[in-house]
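BUG: 3D viewer hangs when loading the predicted structure for this chain

Environment: internal workstation, default settings.
Expected: structure renders.
Actual: progress bar stalls at 90%.

Input used:
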Amino acid sequence: MAERVVIAIPTCKRPKSLARLLNAIAALKTDAEVSVLVADNDAEAHQGFDLCESLSASYRWPLQAVIEPERGIAPARNRLVSEALKTDAQFIAMIDDDEWPDPDWITRFLQTQKQTGADLLQGSVVFLHDAPGVIADIRHPTGPVDMLEGAGNLMIRRQVLEETPAPWFDPAFALTGGEDRDFFMRLKRAGFRFGWADEALAFGRVAASRQRLGWMMRRAYSNGNSDMRVLLKHRQGILPLVRESLKIIGALLLSLPLALILGFSPNHRSRPLVMFMRAVGKLTAMIGLRYNEYALVHGE
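Structure tokens produced before the viewer hung:
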């Protein structure tokens, strides 16, 4: 009997990217029973919702769209989960609206899930660059892993979500990001098993604007800020905080001399500044400040 999979997509103000993603999903090569669920987080213009409505009658798979009025990535993901659990799907595959899958994406996920028995599987993400840059692909060898990277290319067994109390993604991370890392930390403590499916590929396009130093520094600050907020939420005892504090101090002290050493290397000169901003992001989280990265939408 064919597996039943809901492909869950959060979207906000990126109808062109969503259209590209839906076209790729329509071209999937799979024997699974697939349905597609989109949560549009733009209640005012709802371009993603309207796009799905226009496609639903002729689309290859059953296509449902909902509007999630509460702004933020966590509410959008939570809406997707609650709607997906209303179906009889055995698996929920999450992919972001600025990505698109390889034709064998679902097939590879399901194959690896059978091989590993993992409750959650991460797929690799390969980035296509509009200009030469340093943003690396997100890849890992297929097999069990201790922790996952993010919810942008993910397959989850239904039972995981049924056994995890709502909200699955903490609304405290709605505009900052880090909601997926927090979700994974809770699931790890609950004893669920993680795996990686390198062959379950998704692709993303990196705009030239994201290769600029200013964007990379803001992104590093944001990641450091949200990662530290997750650590502060889940830390057990003082030791993890002491270790992280030492890492922050080391990064701050090393970044200046590294910037001087690597300043003449076009391929490496951004690394010390990115390291510095990530450390600053962690430091500001420790004093209660947060960076609302998802207050703005990048792309179209």
